[in-house]
Design a protein that fits this description.
single chain, Isopropylmalate Dehydrogenase, ten-stranded mixed beta sheet, binds nicotinamide-adenine-dinucleotide, alpha/beta, 12 helices
Amino acid sequence: MGKTYKIAVFPGDGIGKEIVPQALRVLNAVASKHNINIKTADALIGGSAIDEFGMPLPEDSLNLALNSDAVLLGAVGGPKWEGLDYSVRPERALLGLREKLRLYGNLRPVKLFSALADASSLKREVIDGIDIMVIRELTGGIYFGKPRGIEKTDGQEKGINTEVYTTSEIERIARLAFEVARGRRKNVCSVDKANVLESSELWRRIVSNVHKEYKDVELTHMYVDNCSMQLIRYPKQFDVILTTNMFGDILSDEAAMLTGSIGMLPSASIGGDVAMYEPIHGSAPDIAGQDKANPIATILSVGMMFKYSFKLDGACSVIDTAVTRVLEKGYRTPDIWSAGQKLTGTREMTDLILNEIE
Ligand code: NAD
């Protein structure tokens, strides 16, 4: 009997409660097909946890995550909790998990399913075949740097944020990028603003130093303004994009839109002993409870879990292939539907994917 993988499951709020159970059906089907032992346990986080326990990340939920091999998360938040103070909002659960699990690297694959090329606002010939991995540093940079705040000076206000990176922070994310690139097309483009920012000058120098350990991988550097342009002009030039927290936040959303729908994109946050997998979208309160949510981003996140946490690339490919086939057969949830295609709900889309797996 092989290892049993323990997975903490946090459906969260809104459509999270619909898509996560569907993704678990896929997880169990792939696990049983590949003789992988899985043990899942779920707990509340976000708004649901606020309603039940008065806090977005109860200690029991955090401990469940810390004692697991991986975390699968849906989404948190919704209008019901919007009036609350920032310190106790549902979104704090995400920040708490990232911090406590030391998830310094966010991996967002941007891959176009050819059947969906027409759902993008860009021309088919520009996007067909794109397969990019955006690697965003997640726990440093301007979102965390000090000093920060709003001060009153000389009769006006001054807003301050500080972009800070240390050698070790840059080294670990650069290593992650080179390791990931080794499993892909062996090409890393490091994105910075080294022509203006000292923190970027250091970033570029340290990334180049780390690259000496990865001579089999090609490294290029690009300024962030040029990268934002190149992503639209000729996205196929990119394999792995490595960048800072804020640049990655912006560029990964831009890159995501190359593929057409937010409901298609998975993510992995890694770095510590336990990685976290979640769709990039939120809790979509406008469609929650109506069987309209696209479950594919969460299902592909399960695929990333197999690949990155359990090193089971074959199980990940099975999921990718099943999704590709269902899309090629013309089935679409409302977010990716257009005239002439077969409209499905959340559950039916998952049934179809399961049929392809089994
Ligand atoms: P959202 O991503 O929830 O929704 C944006 C739009 O995309 C909506 O029209 C929604 O219906 C659609 N959409 C999102 N996911 C979809 C899916 N799987 N299938 C079909 N359509 C989908 O962003 P928002 O509306 O700005 O935020 C709603 C709530 O989610 C807020 O409380 C926000 O703070 C929270 N949020 C959470 C996360 C997270 O948990 N990681 C991320 C972003 C936003």
